[in-house]
Amino acid sequence: MTPPLQSAIVYTQLCSWDNLLLAYRKAAKGKRGHPNVAAFEYRLEDNLLELQRELRAQTYQPGRYTSFYIHEPKRRLISAAPFRDRVVHHALCNVIEPIFERSFIDDSYANRAGKGTHRALDRCQAFARRYRYVLQCDLRQFFPSIDHAILRDILARKIADAPTLWLVDRILASGVGVLSEEYAMVWFPGDDLLAFNRPRGLPIGNLTSQFWANCYLNPFDHFVKRELRCPAYLRYVDDFLLFGDDPRALWEWKQAIVERLARLRVTIHATRAQAHPVGDGIPFLGFRVYPERRRLKRRQGIAYARRLRALARQYTDGEISLDQVTASVQGWVNHARYGNTVGLRAILLRRSAVPLRFASGIIIIRRRSLPEEQQ
Fold first, then answer.
1. Rounded distance, CA 1 to CA 96, Å?
2. Nearest to 252 by CA among 244, 283, 169, 29
3. Nearest CA to 366 among 340, 339, 337, 338?
4. HSE on the CB side for 31, CA within 13 Å?
């Protein structure tokens, strides 16, 4: 285990001009046309200097979140922090993420450089070819359930730098109650009535929330690998898979998993967590993965067909440009091509009811996105 950092070196680096400027560039990437980003950039030097003064004096106070729901692939409450706060989130992650990254297992794939959904799918399929059975689990109401006291203890094991922990506390406190309506109380052994008021929940949408989710489950990852000695395990945020050749061992692991996760005050969907042959297919990250092929989930194709029709209407009405449509189609095609979806892609794009000029653009995208060697 990496020893905790005892000095204020981390916080000094966090507050440095170079780090704050880098944080701004990361936070603004792809968003410089947004009004709040443009307003911050208009007085960039003054805004960064003001943030630097507040951070050094420890007077920084996060602003209020803007919350909204998304409905695909499922209903989620997204909470967006003000842009200046997002700069601070990047500044914090710039300096503490490398400290924790060294302790993460290789088969944790979410929100990490060099990982991602497509590599997670590749690893899942590789395990499906080597083992006969899989135990698939996902956590119930994961982000609303994350316990602040437990998370802070995990973070403090590696960072004993008081000013940095002060900033962690500030950001944690800013999210208290944001997801309270999304959380249904779960009681654990030893709880008293005060457990109801434990601060919990990380706003979905924060960079810090994504990173801290990995930190929160990192002890559990090592439990599966070291104590259960599972030979093939991978996790993407709150979805994780355990592979093996003995279904009885997988059932035993399931009970051990439930007990260990209780220490983190999170639970799995018990009825969904079933050991089954890999040949039945593994629903994972929008695909159904088989040992020798992958299928895009039906609802994913339906959802994008609906999205494409909406884009066509917006383009026809002059609300968006062809470049915006191109970017959306290109992104979806680049994701869908990681499954056996040549026919689906061709049908979906060909049947789009769009004006001729628009359809011509789609055809160009399709031809460029589907070279023969990828089909």
1. 15
2. 244
3. 337
4. 15
Token digits for 291?
């040992």
CA distance linking residue 75 with residue 52, whole number of Å: 37
DSSP string, 230-262: -SEEEEETTEEEEEES-HHHHHHHHHHHHHHHH
User: What is the rounded CA–CA span in Å between residue 105 and residue 162?
Assistant: 27
The DSSP code for 61 is -
Question: Where in the chain does DSSP place strands (E)?
Answer: 66-70, 76-80, 133-138, 232-236, 239-244, 275-277, 282-284, 287-289, 294-296
Q: What digits encode the pLDDT tens for the residues 296-349?
A: 877 777 777 788 888 888 888 888 887 787 788 777 777 777 777 767 776 666
262: nearest Cα among 152, 198, 148, 186? 186
Position 201, amino acid:
G
Which tens digit of pLDDT belongs to each residue from 10-36? 999 999 999 999 999 999 998 988 999
Burial class (CB in 10 A: 0-12, 13-18, 19+), 98: exposed
pTM confidence score: 0.85
Give the Cα separation of 26 and 75 in Å (integer): 27
3-class state of residue 71 by DSSP: coil
Mean pLDDT of the region 247-253: 96
> What torsion do the CA atoms of 371, 113, 300, 134 make, to the nearest 10 degrees?
110
For tokens 């400290």, name the residue.
99
Q: How far is it, in rounded angstroms, from Cα 375 to Cα 340? A: 8
Specify the residue for token string 């191109």: 326
- Tell me how many degrees the CA angle 329-333-334 measures, rounded to the nearest 5: 115
Which class for 86: exposed (0-12), middle (13-18), buried (19 or more C-beta within 10 A)?
buried
Residue 48 and residue 84: Cα distance in Å, rounded?
9
3-class SS of residue 200: strand
